[in-house]
Design goal:
Helices cover 31% and strands 17% of the residues. It is α/β, with parallel strands linked by helices. Helix 9 runs parallel beside helix 12. It comes from Rhodopirellula baltica (strain DSM 10527 / NCIMB 13988 / SH1).
Length: 478
């Protein structure tokens, strides 16, 4: 049995080391319907937030809300410091005591209340909202129970591990009216992604014909031996609702700063915990792609996913036969068909990370670093309408940084009891495409979908993969 490195750097993510429901959700029949759906506010509310306006949210201590961070590693340490601009971080919860200790020192000056069990956090009346930054397989359970406990929530993507979890999340959100912001912060980066959507909404590409979504290749590992669970990590609770597994860990043979594991950081390369690249980067770029189809006034209801995928382990009936290597898809070339039969989306690992929109009148490419194409160049002489970006942003206040803007939008939604820019309903329509893509990869065949009933068509085995069993003792508490 291999013993993991005792270096704290192997266990603490780099940021810690550094310090009423919308009537129609992304289903418009015309470009005009799309603009009505996202909403248009008065001219006074269309101006993007400048920094002083954002600072105005720094309310007096008695007015500021109090929040807890559930899941201190990874995105938790990147996003919680932004949340502290808008609310007071008073509690940390994690199943790894190393995360708790260092998170408390670097995020809260050692003053936060520390918890191992998130249910203790949800029972507190003095905590108004939570940020959920656990591994993916915990998201839906904690989020549902948080909403039922009366908490608003900022939850990292992907929101769920399965399609059926998404149905339950949306049902509970409607029943409780809690505000949930999904951590797809690209929706708040209006300088690039929302500009791209505005270009499409103004008809400058014409009718969309083809979209190429590049999300890079999945993770690779050698065979990873069973290892001793690190001190302070409650491995059983880390696994939670997922299947029971032995802890695995190994250092890279050539790089002492690189490791392989089925735990922290690398959980996303295991179908037991995540959906691989398809729900990691797919949750960002497939999201923007589907919003683009809607912005063009075309029907973005998915009808099928087909294509090819490569795994590093053998599969039988959709299940990996080897348990000591990363098992999510490494490479893929997938085609998504929509109810608007004129447009097709290609999800690939071997093209530039980002989204290519091709229409009858032109094409643009957008990612976090650039927005390019002739329709973009044409903006110099033929700019977008003054309110074009604000329409994409549902007429809500905006600002130009993804994480600060996303948290600011979350707080705006809480104060006004409205859906945030990345609501659970439109998120799940997109994420279901990513989940269907994963089922297609695992079974090696086309998967057909009925959006009206939200069900797989004509394939009992694929339909069964819309849900998963929960380990005894870790069922969702309703």
């Amino acid at each position: 049995m291999t013993k993991p490195s005792s270096s704290l750097d192997d266990r603490i993510p780099s940021p810690l080391r550094l310090v009423s429901l919308m009537n129609t959700v992304c289903q418009p029949n015309s470009r005009r319907d799309f603009l009505k759906t996202v909403g248009v506010a008065s001219a006074a509310t269309l101006t993007p937030w400048a920094l002083p306006a954002r600072q105005s949210l720094a309310k007096s201590p008695n007015e500021r809300k109090r929040f807890a961070l559930i899941g201190v590693g990874g995105n938790g340490t990147r996003t919680a410091p932004v949340g502290k601009e808008f609310a007071d971080l008073v509690a940390l919860c994690d199943v790894d005591q190393t995360h708790l200790k260092y998170g408390n020192e670097l995020l809260c000056d050692g003053k936060a209340e520390l918890f191992r069990d998130y249910r203790e956090v949800l029972s507190r009346d003095d905590i108004d909202l939570v940020q959920i930054s656990t591994p993916d397989h915990w998201h839906a359970k904690i989020l549902i129970e948080a909403m039922l406990a009366g908490k608003d929530a900022y939850c990292e993507k992907p929101l769920t591990l399965t399609i059926d979890e998404g149905k339950l999340v949306r049902k509970v959100q409607q029943q409780t009216g809690r505000v949930v912001q999904v951590g797809t912060q690209q929706r708040s980066s209006f300088d690039k992604f929302n500009h791209a959507l505005a270009i499409i909404a103004e008809g400058r590409l014409g009718k969309l014909k083809r979209l190429v979504v590049g999300i890079d290749a999945g993770g690779w590992s050698p065979e990873i031996p069973v290892a001793e669970v690190p001190e302070g990590l409650d491995w059983d609770r880390w696994l939670g609702p997922g299947p029971e597994m032995e802890y695995r860990y190994a250092l890279d043979a050539k790089r002492s700063d690189k490791n392989y594991t089925n735990g922290h950081t690398h959980f996303r390369w295991w179908y037991e915990h995540s959906g691989g690249k398809l729900t990691d980067w797919g949750a960002h770029h497939v999201d923007i792609a589907m919003l683009g189809i809607a912005a063009a006034g075309q029907n973005n209801d998915p009808v099928s996913v087909d294509g090819t995928a490569k795994h590093d382990v053998e599969f039988r009936d959709g299940m990996p036969l080897q348990n000591n290597r990363y098992n999510t898809a490494r490479a893929f070339d997938l085609k998504v068909a929509f109810a608007d039969g004129d447009v097709e989306m290609n999800i690939r690992h071997d093209v530039d990370n980002g989204i290519l929109f091709e229409g009858e009148r032109g094409r643009i490419f957008v990612n976090r670093g650039k927005l390019v194409g002739k329709p973009v160049e044409d903006l110099k002489t033929n700019p977008l309408a003054e309110d074009a970006i604000a329409r994409i942003y549902r007429g809500m206040p905006m600002e130009g940084n993804d994480r600060p803007a996303h948290w600011a939008n979350f707080m705006h939604a809480i104060d006004n009891r409205v859906l945030p820019i990345s609501d659970v309903h439109s998120h799940m329509k997109m994420l279901n495409v990513c989940h269907l893509a994963g089922i297609c990869c695992r079974l090696g065949r086309k998967v057909e979908w009925d959006q009206a009933t939200e069900s797989v068509v004509g394939d009992e085995q694929a339909a069964a993969m819309m849900k998963r069993p929960y380990r005894a003792g870790y069922e969702i508490e309703m």
